[in-house]
Write a structure and sequence with these properties.
Blueprint lengths: L12 E9 L4 E10 L6 E10 L4 E8 L3 E5 L4 E10 L3 E10 L8 E2 L4
Amino acid sequence: MVYRLNTTVRPLIWIEAHVEPHSHSRIEFQIKAKSNFKRRSTANNVEIIIPVPPDADSPSFKTNVGKVEYVLDKDAIIWRIKQFQGKQQTHRQQEGQADRHTRSHTHQASEY
């Protein structure tokens, strides 16, 4: 599901992103996802797409739920969650290097 909000409503899944540059080439992303629907409901096959700088390289991931994949063609990280329960919060942490000369291909984190 893709949607844009022009009014003040609560989205089904609220995403908070915190980007912290540590040096001239290292960036850390902390992403939190919180569901805003009933506990008895479940969202299936959720994909959260996080854009990254086009010169990103050597990503590493830590997540407590789902799988994370770096997609070079889209300059993005895709966080896939098979089932997301209502009134649940989860988070993911990612670090990467910015290198203008070397770029790696697809990296995938293991499911925790």
